[in-house]
Amino acid sequence: QDNGFEQFIINYCNEKLQQIFILMTLKEEQEEYVREGIQWTPVEFFDNSIICNLIENSKCGILAMLDEECLRPGVVNEDTFLTKLNQLFATHKHYESKETQNARHVMDASLLPQCFRIHHYAGKVTYNVTGFIEKNNDLLFRDLSQAMWAARHALLRSLFPEGNPQKVSLKLPPTAGFQFKASVATLMKNLYSKNPNYIRCIKPNETKTAMLFMPELVLAQIRYLGLMENVRVRRAGYAFRQVYGPFLERYKMLSPRTWPRWAGTDRKGAEVLLAELAFPPEELGFGITKIFIRSPRTLFDLESRRQKRVAELATLIQKTFRGWRCRTRYQLMRKSQIIISAWFRGHA
Fold it and tell me: What digits encode the pLDDT tens for the residues 89-130?
């Protein structure tokens, strides 16, 4: 009920994780269809970049304003920080406070004067600014860092690299918010370089009770996790896509027109192959560089036909090899019999 600096930082991280989830599962998915020239009706979804920018913008984000207040000389308190936020985000649709509500003539007793509210992707969260500056300005004195660096314990020494006398910096140490923002940026860079898989956990009830399903709770989670849009994109889109070359190489054995060699382009070969297999046209999409298959059932059908064909080809290879082996053995026996007969006649 009472959210402070720690919850603000946690929710900022959640926003960044939601952003990468949106980009990798919704935005990039739809952009690929457009890029490949596949006929597609875009699915609307909420892009939370505007919320991330509200928090982390290096010039006028909430964290930047908090750092500015921490470094500003003179009397500094949370009131000046909140006043600055109210001036900057007076018209921002994802930010509100008592002052911005008064300007819009909104009566809301739940929002206290020392609080501000952010409309996160998962819902509205109210933050109490009390303690924000103190917690963000959580500095470790240099002499303590140097004392820890001078310890004989290797782990302690490694945890305080800033205590190295040869690397002493006269700059002010980074604030807690700045450090967390840099840490989140590193995490995002790492995640963007991977191909992540998502497991979304849904709580069926609040009491951790077996055999109890609360539809309202589950529906709320599905909405704020972005699963509705994700399911719509997946259902409207294609379950499988692959570049024409590897696709043709894997399945060309299913058609006598493409097996064992295909002289044309990879795309033309894929079109000929799939036309031969007589799949419904709505199941297939031919992009610029990739083949798209809508239903997993179609892909399973392709795989089962391929397995059957592989067994037939293996039998053909075995049959040919056995025939060659028997024929070679017969020819050797025949040649040997002729030589023996010739020598016997000569001797007789």
Answer: 999 999 999 998 888 888 888 888 899 999 998 889 999 999
Q: Choose among 38, 28, 26, 42: nearest CA to 288.
A: 38
Burial class (CB in 10 A: 0-12, 13-18, 19+), 130: middle
**Residue whose pair of structure tokens reads 């500056």 in the numeric block:** 133
| Ranges of H-type helices in 193-290 | 215-224, 227-236, 244-251, 266-277
Distance CA 210, CA 204 (A): 9
- Could you give the CA distance from residue 147 to residue 157 in angstroms, rounded to a whole number? 9
The C-alpha atoms of residue 16 and residue 21 are separated, in whole angstroms, by 9
Residue 279: what residue type?
F
Nearest C-alpha neighbor of 133 from the set 59, 74, 49, 51:
74
Instruction: Count CA atoms closer than 13 A to 301's CA, side-chain side.
Output: 12
Domains of the chain: 5-138+174-193 (1.20.58.530), 238-298 (3.30.70.1590)
313-347 pLDDT, tens per residue?
Answer: 999 999 999 999 999 999 999 999 999 999 999 99
For the stretch 164-172, contacts whose Cβ atoms lie closer than 8 Å and that sit 24 or more positions apart, written own/partner, are: 168/142, 172/71, 172/139
Point out which residues pair with 126 in neighbouring strands: 117
